[in-house]
Design brief:
Strands 1-2 form a two-stranded antiparallel sheet. The longest helix is centred in the first third of the chain and has 60 residues. It has 195 residues and is mainly alpha-helical. A hairpin with a 2-residue loop joins strand 1 and strand 2. The chain has seven helices and two strands, in the order H-H-H-H-H-H-H-E-E. The protein is 77% helix and 4% strand.
């Protein structure tokens, strides 16, 4: 065989190997990106389910907690902020506010024995608590996926394929330390006040 044919064949195999490797890297990055999107969609579904339960909860406790309008208002405002949040960072902050408002509401509900005995309230409380736990689990799963994706697009050789495709690091579903501060609830003469 002619040495130019062997050289040409070797060059062709080398280029084909590089292209196949690039396709494998590309497919891996696309898979990770899609897993991030799926993980976020799972969180978003749970957040929507929680949003849908909040009006029922507020209506259930309204009659019992006539002196706790501030607590009910905090829950309603947190729900509104959560529904209007667009980015992952905004949703994370709104999620923390919703958790805080719900904890405050459930803590205040402890002062109302008739409310605690209301089967509808107990069902809603259990449902929302279950959703909170599922959101926390999904948040952890989402952040793991984001971490894997961000690591892969920053490592060689994936970084070259990622930059060619303009893939950017994704944001974790987390809150800042400032937003993490807990709302302090104080009880004064049977009424709660946020500090």
């Amino acid at each position: 065989m002619d040495s130019s044919i062997i050289t040409g064949l070797a060059f062709f195999l080398f280029i084909a190997g590089i292209l196949i490797y690039a396709v494998i890297l590309y497919n891996g990055l696309v898979r990770l990106r899609n897993e991030n999107d799926r993980a976020w969609a799972n969180i978003d579904v749970l957040l929507k389910q929680r949003h849908d339960e909040i009006p029922n909860l507020v209506e259930t406790v309204k009659g019992y907690m006539q002196h706790e309008q501030q607590t009910l208002l905090a829950v309603t405002q947190a729900r509104s902020a959560s529904m209007n949040a667009a980015s992952i960072a905004q949703k994370a902050v709104a999620d923390l506010k919703m958790e805080t408002a719900l904890r405050s509401l459930f803590a205040v509900a402890e002062n109302y024995p008739q409310l605690k005995a209301n089967e509808n309230f107990l069902n809603l409380q259990n449902r929302i608590t279950e959703l909170e736990e599922r959101i926390a689990d999904r948040r952890e799963f989402f952040n793991d996926d984001v971490n894997t994706y961000n690591t892969r697009i920053g490592q060689i050789p994936d970084v070259f394929v990622a930059s060619f495709l303009s893939l950017k690091p994704r944001t974790f579903f987390k809150v800042s330390d400032e937003d993490r501060k807990q709302l302090e609830v104080k009880f004064v003469n049977g009424q709660s006040s946020g500090a």
